[in-house]
Known about the structure:
Layout: E1 3-4, E2 7-8, H1 9-19, E3 25-29, H2 33-40, E4 50-54, H3 69-72, E5 77-80, E6 84-85, H4 90-99, E7 105-111, E8 119-123, E9 129-134, H5 138-146, E10 157-165, H6 169-173, H7 186-195, E11 200-204, E12 210-211, H8 215-227
Parallel strand pairs: 3-4, 7-11
Antiparallel strand pairs: 1-2, 5-10, 6-12, 7-10, 8-9, 8-10
Amino acid sequence: MLRVHGKPVLEHIVPGLVNAQVDGICIITGWRAEIIEEHFGDGSAWGTSICYARQAVQDGTGKAPELARDFVGNDSFFLTYGDILVPQETYQAMANRFGAGDSSGLLAVTEGEDVTKGGLSFFDDHFCLTRLVEKPTPEQVRALKNEGWLRPENPLHYNAGVYIFRPLLFEFTARLEKSSRGEYELTDAIQAMAEAKARIAGYSIKGRWVDVRDPEVLATLEAETGSQ
């Protein structure tokens, strides 16, 4: 519910999903869930239907999606973190890419420089995921260079936190164990899917990608608003 350009981050995300013809939205809430629920209500003000599921224990991104399993049913679905801003047209472009092939999932990425802060993603010649390393340590980065995964001539793809999945994802989130950071991490489930040869397409975001949880980024965005 942090405000960007005068409205909550989620209020930037919901219209993009609606424009991509999603049938309904389930918002996973946690701390102060009632504020989000009261703001968005049943979703009718945004031309959609919204329901909610509360995550009682915030133990990582890997278990949160399971709260929406009944909501999803047998349908493919978007999954996005609630603090990520992308151009509105991104969601429809992702849907087009996903619908063009027989994929079990789609991972949106952005090009980055400091890959130790997020998911370092590698793709084959068809731009389908081959490997995903979450927040690699300096030692892991060196190993990736030595093994030929990281090459100076190749762009660094950074997991953007916006996805499309088939319900197959839940088979892998159900098997998750806590990472070295003490959390159940969605990226571990995605990596397991890739290892199991599930096809996960990639989509490189066109335009600006913003992770709003960084206070400095939020301050920059608000300063832009003030200068308009």
